[in-house]
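Internal ticket - ligand job 547, magnesium ion:
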Amino acid sequence: MNAEATPGRERLIEQFKADGLKVMFGNPGTVEQGFLDAVDAAADFRYVLALQETVAAGIADGYARATGGAALLQLHSGVGLGNGIGMLYQSLRGHTPLVVVAGDAGVRYDAMDAQMASDLVAMARPVTKYATRVTDPRSVLRTVRRAVKIALTPPRGPVFVALPMDVLDELNSEPVLPATVPLTDVAPSPASVGRAAALLAGATRPVVLVGDGVALSGAQAELVAVAELLGADVFEVDSSEVNIAASHPLRRGQTGHMFGPHSKELVGNADAVLIVGTYVFPEVFPELENPFRPGAKVVHIDLNAYEIAKNHPVDLGLAADPRHALRALAGVLEQRLTPAQRAAAAARLDVRTRERARAELAADDDGTPMAVFLRTLAERTGRDLIVFDEALTTSPLVTRYLPPERPGDYHLTRGGSLGVGFPGAVGAKLAHPDRLVVGFAGDGGTMYTHQALWTAARYGIDAKFVVCNNRKYRLLDDNIAQYWRERDIAEHPYPGSFDLAHPEIDFAGLARALGADGTRVEKPDEAVAAVARMLAHPGPYLVDIQI
Ligand SMILES: Cc1ncc(C[n+]2csc(CCOP(=O)(O)OP(=O)(O)O)c2C)c(N)n1
Ligand SMILES: [Mg+2]
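stdout (structure tokens):
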């Protein structure tokens, strides 16, 4: 053995650090004990404890989203991995580069089928891009490097490595080297860009559909340039980051996650469709027929080639980086648009600009406690804050007062797992300790992962939390109402399982029980004082707002 050899459990930490992974979120167990001992002894490496694996995964996910890099998550064997799977599912759908590790008792026990034994790789596979188990002490770091590379290569996503205790106890002399993540800043060829421009240039009702691939490549400015040149409405599809500023007049909002016919209504009249960094369409109940009108020209740009033409044919698919592709496309459109086409595009932009101004004038100042809270928060902070939005049915109000404008200032829950908002805010605050971070969640969503407040209190992570408390699973009410309408079922009381009114949950008391603090807002005038108290409080603070 090489003179420099060290126990694998220690060398593994050096490998994580070489890739900039210096914080590990997790929840421990006995089969990870040697490794966690080494974690405590390691310099410049930090363990952040969460009390339930869903919470650990949610904090890691929020941290990765807020830093734009990978995050490290440790789970305990099959039971801990099992608890984390719902949250890992949303990381997979949202393309979060999470590096997930879990211990097992050891390769030497494989034949015993003993207590805690489970097929970790099989469990992790459906919620990860790559799942494997290290079985030889000469390939621990090699495997972890590969996992990091896969997590960070677009389409990004979670990866899983099972680490048997006996393999980590062996001496290890593998080189510690950063993973090589291949550059994907690829532009399409001029000929391909020319084809895209030819398909889009003549449109009179163009639409652009954007998702988080835009934010990942930093293509927001290039996207706006193309949308303005085309005079195209921009819809966000499966979008959870700031892909286009909320204030841009061409931005028409999200197509939604539930009902295909709704999305079809928004885009079905377009004669040209440019899809960038997303997929068509993400609803739970999508249209099975092609939602675009016959003859519409469809161009799809994405680094994620799997999503191009996944469900419906496109005229041109470009597996390319959105920023480079859109920049090239804007250049060609500048050249080839006729004066008449430019004038028509400018007129479409003008219509949207005037509509937007009228809508802003018409918006009444909703005087509910939540509206007063949001308006006061926006005024007091000059909207200089990071919002983590799992407000669900209250989200439209949140984004009306705190519109997602700058990349990195807003993260929306994604993937459909509840409980993302509060852990996400903790992760974002850890990533940006100097910014104000406010997580919004429904009363339902809060109860999946409220333990995040304990982690925030333990480590002095001064995030703020707002419970949008309507005492129900309101989204489920809304969705079943749609189900009744579609089937001509007469309205009747919502299922009792959607109601949370009894017994009442004392969220501020819950925050105090977990080492944080909080208050409850029932009337509009209490909302103003609650903002002041929340901002002045030197630590995690929860505001329970009655809707
Ligand atoms: C882990 C998980 N369990 C259950 C659901 C189903 N579900 C979707 S929305 C919802 C209700 C959310 O209620 P709340 O957070 O209070 O927000 P509201 O709808 O009231 O605005 C539920 C239970 C889910 N998406 N994820
Ligand atoms: Mg609710």
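Auto-summary: The pocket of thiamine diphosphate (ligand 1) is lined by residues 86, 392-394, 416-418, 442-445, 448, 470, 472-476 (CB under 6 Å). Residues 369-546 form a domain with the Rossmann fold fold (CATH 3.40.50.970).
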